[in-house]
Amino acid sequence: MTHATTAPKQSFLEKLNGPWHERALWVYLTIVIVHWVEHIFQAAQIWILGMPRPQALGALGYAFPWLVKSEVMHFTYAVLMLAGLVLLRSGFHGTAKKWWTVSLAIQGFHLFEHTLLILQATAGQNLFGSPVPTSIGQQFIPRPELHLLYNLIVFVPMIVAMWLHTRPDQATVNQCSYADAPGRVQQAGPSPA
User: Fold this and answer.
1) Per the domain annotation, does 183 fall within a domain?
2) For the chain, how many helices (H) and strands (E)?
3) Is position 3 within any domain?
4) CA 74 to chain centre
């Protein structure tokens, strides 16, 4: 009598950072780009169309102005962005992982700023004598520009990490489908740590 050996079941997180990693990265990147489009739309409303800042609510603001004006949407997105960076991190290796971690750290501070904003909105008490919820960074940079900057400095290292992750020399350490993508040249040599 022979017993069939079954492979150990992978957890959701192991699948997410293994065979599902490439697809998860594409989904995550799509969400980030949609968010970017919203910020760019808002910037165009302010700098090209000359709309007053309180009325420049982006594309989403046309349909749901109450949602865009609330801190809940911005806080929720900041949490989801950080969660994605945390959940997908173990699928990266070597230099790619270092860049991904830089993005994660910056997003951690960005979430801290949004936490300050939502706490002020909830408590009805604003910092710095401001009539509206205000973050630390807003003491130096107006809110639309500040959030464009935060999104940029989170996005750049994230894209660098993804680009490094897809390079052929990473195929020996990646466990996701990038490792065996057609047309990739497997390079011999030690695998990066």
Assistant:
1) no
2) 7, 0
3) no
4) 13
The model's pLDDT over 14-72, given as tens digits with 9 standing for 90+, comes to 888 888 899 999 999 999 999 999 989 999 999 999 999 888 898 888 888 888 888 89
Integer-rounded Cα Rg, in Å, for the chain is 21
Among 129, 132, 112, 110, CA closest to 121: 132
- Is residue 191 over pLDDT 50? no
Convert the pLDDT of each residue in 154-172 to its tens digit: 999 999 999 999 887 765 6
* Residue 140 structure tokens: 């130096």
pTM of the model: 0.82
Establish if 107 belongs to a structural domain: yes
Is residue 161 in some structural domain? yes
d(CA 89, CA 97): 7
Q: What Å distances lie between residue 133 and 4, 18, 66, 121, 147, CA to CA? A: 62, 41, 16, 6, 14
Per the structure, the complete domain to which residue 102 belongs is given by 13-174
Q: Which amino acid is at 167?
A: R
DSSP state of 177: G
Q: How many domains does the chain have?
A: 1
